[in-house]
From TrEMBL:
Residues 27-89 form the Ubiquitin-like domain. InterPro entries: Ubiquitin-like_dom, Ubiquitin-like_domsf. This is Ubiquitin-like domain-containing protein.
Amino acid sequence: MRSSAPLPAPQPVPLDYVVHPPPPKPLLLFITNVKNAKTVWVEISVNDNVHMLKRYVSRKMDIPVEDMILVYLGDELKNDTQIKYSSLDLVMQKAAAGEPSAEESTIHLIDIKDTPAEVREPKLTLLDDAHL
């Protein structure tokens, strides 16, 4: 039998002691290539930016980052935008309330090489005198 020694008196917490909240849970996103319907999943922090998301997707789909356009709910996700400030906030809200569905967590990937040349490189037309 062990002897029960008295517990030490609690020490006061220093005034400058800061307890940081735990990091946010990662988001689970599904990325679907619109041409061939190949889908991959990616876990990403809401503090990462879209360029980082593209890097993760690039590794899984073997598509260069510079050839990707990511679209969520009709909006293109811009490289320098943090995930938490993008249109993916709907996924974050659903994740906080429970689990979002795969449909709500799906981002569409467009490979620029799969788009028609006219879309990638629109032709410049010169206006004649009648249109000036």
